[in-house]
Amino acid sequence: MKKLTLSAMLLTGQLAGATFASQFDKPGFVTKVEDGRLWVFREGSQELMDFKANGEPAKQFTYVGTGTEGMTVKAVDEKALKD
Predict the structure, then answer these.
(1) What is the β-pairing status of strands 29-34 and 61-63?
(2) What would the DSSP string read from start to end of 16-63?
(3) How many other C-beta atoms can be found within 10 angstroms of the C-beta atom of residue 64?
(4) How far is it, in rounded angstroms, from Cα 57 to Cα 3?
(5) What is the distance between the alpha carbons of residues 45 and 15, in angstroms, rounded to a whole number?
(6) DSSP secondary-structure letter at 56?
(7) pTM of the predicted model, to two decimals?
(8) What are phi and psi of 24, to 5 degrees?
(9) In the predicted model, what is the mean pLDDT of residues 56-64?
(10) Which of 2, 1, 68, 77 is nearest to 41 (CA)?
């Protein structure tokens, strides 16, 4: 039983770390919904890797209530928000 539980935990952890996509992704962009806000990152960007490792960046741009379902949209640069 211990082996099964440990295996399940490891698999779940690997899948959670590997997936970052959300239903709001667009070609060239990766999104993540966090605390009801939609974060937007360019695919493969250093900012995305930093966000995964450290959480919210100190510098960010925010469009309040402009996203799908009235969500606030956030990104580390304004161009990503506009694109």
Answers:
(1) unpaired
(2) HHH----TT--TTEEEEEETTEEEEEETT-HHHHHHHHH-S-SS-EEE
(3) 11
(4) 38
(5) 20
(6) S
(7) 0.69
(8) -95, 0
(9) 89
(10) 77
Tokens of 50: 């930093």
The per-residue pLDDT for range 3-48, each reduced to its tens digit, is 444 344 434 433 344 345 578 888 899 999 888 899 999 999 999 9
User: Tokens in use for 56?
Assistant: 């919210």
Handedness of CA 81, 69, 34, 45 (dihedral sign): negative
d(CA 69, CA 2): 43
Question: Cβ distance 67 to 75 under 8 Å?
Answer: no
Q: Diameter of the chain by CA atoms?
A: 51
Can you read off the two tokens belonging to residue 65? Answer: 């209530």
Q: Compute how many other C-beta atoms are within 10 angstroms of the C-beta atom of residue 59.
A: 8
Beta-carbon contacts of 21 under 8 Å, excluding residues fewer than 6 positions away, are 30, 31
- Counting beta carbons within 10 angstroms of the beta carbon of residue 50, is it exposed (0 to 12), middle (13 to 18) or buried (19 or more)? middle
